[in-house]
UniProtKB/TrEMBL annotation:
InterPro entries associated with the record: GreA/GreB_C_sf, TF_GreA/GreB_CS, Tscrpt_elong_fac_GreA, Tscrpt_elong_fac_GreA/B, Tscrpt_elong_fac_GreA/B_C, Tscrpt_elong_fac_GreA/B_fam, Tscrpt_elong_fac_GreA/B_N, Tscrpt_elong_fac_GreA/B_N_sf
Record flagged with keyword Ligase: no
Organism encoding this protein: Acidiphilium rubrum
Domain Transcription elongation factor GreA/GreB C-terminal: 82-155
High-level lineage: Bacteria, Pseudomonadati, Pseudomonadota, Alphaproteobacteria, Acetobacterales
Gene expressing this chain: greA
Stated role: Necessary for efficient RNA polymerase transcription elongation past template-encoded arresting sites. The arresting sites in DNA have the property of trapping a certain fraction of elongating RNA polymerases that pass through, resulting in locked ternary complexes. Cleavage of the nascent transcript by cleavage factors such as GreA or GreB allows the resumption of elongation from the new 3'terminus. GreA releases sequences of 2 to 3 nucleotides.
GO terms of biological process kind: DNA-templated transcription elongation; regulation of DNA-templated transcription elongation
Protein name: Transcription elongation factor GreA
Length: 157
């Protein structure tokens, strides 16, 4: 079975989503299907077909979350140290072209959210950062051409 590296907060977030789907969404969609059935002919009942599609999505997401959670390998970045970048590291970079500074934490695939500064360990940028130290420069392929970043800081915890 494939293990998924993940931070504690990332696992908690997935568990919360799973609980919400099971406790709130699943019963609500069952009620919606029962209501739509009471309206008669199911072959032309858009409410019924919509509710069934929603139920299929919810059940699929529940199964996906259960699989991810069962295979999660929680890694606590606070227990890590050093100056080389690895899973859980918080890195500060500067884009050498735009001089814009960015800060990311390298996290598991299923908890990544670039808008919140959580960079998937499987992303091209994270892959190029792993094993590097402050002062190193990395080049990352991007749709508009390669981007170069200088690593400013590396922290854990």
């Amino acid at each position: 079975m494939q293990k998924f590296p993940m931070t504690g907060p990332g696992l908690t977030s997935l568990e919360t989503e799973l609980r919400h789907l099971k406790v709130e969404e699943r019963p609500a969609i069952i009620r919606a299907i029962a209501e739509a059935r009471s309206h008669g002919d199911l072959s032309e009942n858009a409410e019924y077909h919509s509710a069934r599609e929603r139920q299929s999505f919810i059940e699929g997401r529940i199964a996906e979350l259960e699989e991810i959670i069962s295979a999660a390998e929680v890694i606590d970045p606070a227990t890590l140290s050093g100056d080389t970048i690895k899973f859980g590291a918080q890195v500060e970079l500067i884009d050498e072209e735009t001089e814009k500074q960015v800060r990311y934490q390298i996290v598991g695939l299923h908890e990544a959210d670039i808008k919140l500064g959580r960079l998937s360990v499987t992303s091209p940028l994270a892959k190029s950062l792993i094993g590097k130290k402050p002062g190193d420069t990395v080049s990352v392929p991007a749709p508009g051409g390669d981007r170069s970043y200088e690593i400013l800081t590396v922290r854990f915890g």
